[in-house]
Amino acid sequence: MGIIEKIKEIEAEMARTQKNKATEYHLGQLKAKIAKLRTQLLEPPKGSSGGGEGFEVTKFGHGRVALIGFPSVGKSTLLTMLTGTHSESASYEFTTLTCIPGIIHYNDTKIQLLDLPGIIEGASEGKGRGRQVIAVAKSSDIVLMVLDASKSEGHRQILTRELEAVGLRLNKRPPQIYFKKKKTGGISFNSTLPLTHVDEKLCYQILHEYKIHNAEILFREDATVDDLIDVIEGNRKYMKCIYVYNKIDVVGIDDVDRLARQPNSVVISCNLKLNLDRLLSRMWDEMGLVRVYTKPQGQQPDFSDPVVLSADRGGCSVEDFCNHIHRSLVKDVKYVLVWGISARHYPQHCGLSHILRDEDVVQIVKKKEKEEGGRGRFKSHSNAPARISDREKKAPLKT
């Protein structure tokens, strides 16, 4: 029996098992088994020389956005509208067969937009090049899930389920659970608050399913069984996702209003070019890019070419800003002067730990190099030997 058949068999057993207090331990074990099998499904087969055929797209720009959706929902048209890059679009499904990159120039930054082939139900099991599409989505900073406003709401649940099956968690934060494997000492179970979904016995059973018999685990929130399995697996990626409803020109105003009021949702129409500016603005807010402008000493700030930082790519502190310019710059920094939202007054003297905000202006003041033999004009010490006997004798005066 293959891995996919085993997963389907366990899912069928979970579907026919009643959910109550008596069966929660059994259901927890089944969930752990499914998670293990899905991890094995994503691993390359043993003995394979390479990673298989994929989409080779070089990372470019200050951020990366992936377009994911069913076939014929308008992904290629949206890429052409936003970037100007031509992507083949037609009235039949699976027009796009490979990954097509484009560049969005927005707020002095360059954002890479990837048009991926449409995925179908069963993509997490490898149907329709689903694994390659999801692998590229994992390497992105944010996901745009393009949906057809005229179709049923079930498409969104199917796509979310397929992405969660391969370890992508959309619009969720990592669970507050501390987990560490140990060599000896058994399992130490603690929590800082009362737990309603997980107890000590269920936690032990799930850890034994993974053959973990020595570990330390601490719950800092009322987490579920799925959260605990995600922490044990350790390969989950938590990403931001914007649900983009296209083709709003073919539905009524009541449906458009209902879709627009849903969380993390934007309604657009590529055909009539409606609300594309709002989509770009929302994408910019979710990515959290920080533009920092440099100011040389005694000169005006350079507003033409900003240094772009982000919390997901390195951080937004002054130290990260210096490392972005050059790795050796940090040890030469004496202090920095900051103008902008993050400064309390203009200019503010800051250290390396100061967190920068969007459109801040930074001037770096470097340490002065010490002159040989002393500090500044005045020598702090003499070059003469310490002992009198070691001094050189002066030449005798001419007689």
From TrEMBL:
Domain (OBG-type G) ranges: 63-288
Superkingdom, taxonomy of origin: Eukaryota
Cited Pfam families: MMR_HSR1, MMR_HSR1_Xtn, TGS
Gene3D superfamilies: 3.10.20.30, 6.10.140.1070
Family matches, as InterPro entries: Beta-grasp_dom_sf, DRG, G_OBG, GTP-bd, GTP-binding_2, GTP1-OBG_CS, P-loop_NTPase, Small_GTP-bd
PROSITE patterns assigned: G_OBG, GTP1_OBG, TGS
Comp. bias (Basic and acidic residues): 388-399
Domain (TGS): residue spans on this chain: 288-366
Keyword Nucleotide-binding: yes
Keyword Transmembrane set for record: no
GO molecular function: GTP binding; GTPase activity
Residue ranges, annotated region (Disordered): 368-399
Keyword field: GTP-binding, Nucleotide-binding
Family annotation (PANTHER family): DEVELOPMENTALLY-REGULATED GTP-BINDING PROTEIN 2
Name of the protein in its database record: Developmentally-regulated G-protein
Species per Swiss-Prot/TrEMBL record: Arachis hypogaea
